[in-house]
Amino acid sequence: MRGLPTADDYLPGHGDRTWSARSYDLDLAYKLEGNRLDGEARVEVEVLERTDRLVLDLAGLDVSKVSVDGRRPAKHAQRRNRLVVTLAEEAHEGAVLQLVVKYAGHPRPLVEKHHGDAGWEELTDGVIVAGQPHGAPTWLPCNDRPDDKATYRITVTTDVGYTVVSNGLLDQRRRRGSSESWTYVMDAPMATYLATVQIGRYDIVEHDGPVPLVSAVPQGTGRRPSADYEAGLGRQADMMRAFEGWFGPYPFTSYAAVVTGDDLEIPLESQSLSTFGKNFVSQDWEQVRLVAHELAHQWFGNIVTLARWRDIWLHEGFACYSEWLWSEESGGRSADAWARHHHERLAELDQDLVLADPGPELMFDDRVYKRGALALHAVRGQVGDEAFFDLLTGWVADHARASVTTEDFLAYADRRTGADVSGLLRPWLADEELPAL
């Protein structure tokens, strides 16, 4: 029996490099009572290498029917959280296929070594989907690798009385009897781990931002905003405008923040959307900074996305540094003060992490976040503010919708600034020992 492919060694058993998804069109029906999901996924497939099969990621859900270009394939089978579709005839490089998968079941989080659980998860009264890094297969058949970006159309039909929030703009909302359908369109290419669905009893609060910007908050709280709410979520429009000044225009057509009625362990990043537990709505800087952090990912992680999980510092280091910039902008501690504070703390910790390749067990270690931000602060100190912020805006503008690596950033930074940024960053990225600031 042929083995199953792995696209990224940080996430074994996910992804297939012989094909790429151009688009996903998902039609989902979900019953909260009983946690029942029925889905049809229409995937436009581009063949990248000559192949006689397509391997998709799908975990914990049963496939009832598969078609390729309107016909049954030679066969399909489910193996170890994968759907293997054997084609009726071999597909050549460059071929475009229309794949349809019908599936159903009781979705649940997927537990992976090093990364814990992620995916479709029931709340006390609703649902969240935490995709990063391996949760996408718990609710859609997909090519689950970070460098495979596609457009999405997501329709969710669920019980009346619940609000559905997903990626992109709400295109259509229809009620039929005791159920209601919500259709969202994300027309900017998106990695699978950034796709999400949020279902709950929410009030929608609009903010006066440069694009449609809303918060979905537990029913009743949106009509009586608290000081905690105003300190964090209430300043998202200000954050967005500040980030536009440093990083360039907000890259998507809308942005939403969802606050669940449950406490969550950590906030969740998605494209054009972030999710927070009610425990993250606070005046405390430790909570406010996370609102800024998740918003910054829209530039660093969503519109410009890593090609390999080992380069996670390109997301988390940049988002962490954005927290420090917002602190200074909003009257708090300066970015330089935060840099010195965290450098001092990191110096007291184990020196066993390589920033540009931390390994799957350490890829979400807090040292990746802080050391990545410190590396950027070192660049800023070397080249000056004008060249530094020009580098950030240029990086986003010139790599929008693309997948990138650390090597891409270093080469770009050298060209853009005219300085030896790659030489400066080499010890920050490649050495275990923390460089002096």
TrEMBL record:
Positions of the Peptidase M1 membrane alanine aminopeptidase domain: 236-428
**Aminopeptidase N-like N-terminal domain sequence ranges:** 22-194
Q: What does the record give as cofactor?
A: Zn(2+)
Name the domain of life.
Answer: Bacteria
| Molecular function in Gene Ontology | aminopeptidase activity
Arranged from A to Z, the UniProt key words for this protein are: Aminopeptidase, Hydrolase, Metal-binding, Metalloprotease, Protease, Zinc
* Key word Lyase present: no
| Record-listed E.C. numbers | 3.4.11.2
**Which reaction does this enzyme catalyse, per its entry?**
Release of an N-terminal amino acid, Xaa-|-Yaa- from a peptide, amide or arylamide. Xaa is preferably Ala, but may be most amino acids including Pro (slow action). When a terminal hydrophobic residue is followed by a prolyl residue, the two may be released as an intact Xaa-Pro dipeptide
Q: Which residues form a coiled coil?
A: none
Q: Which family does it belong to?
A: Belongs to the peptidase M1 family.
Q: What is this protein's name?
A: Aminopeptidase N
Q: Which organism is it from?
A: Nocardioides imazamoxiresistens
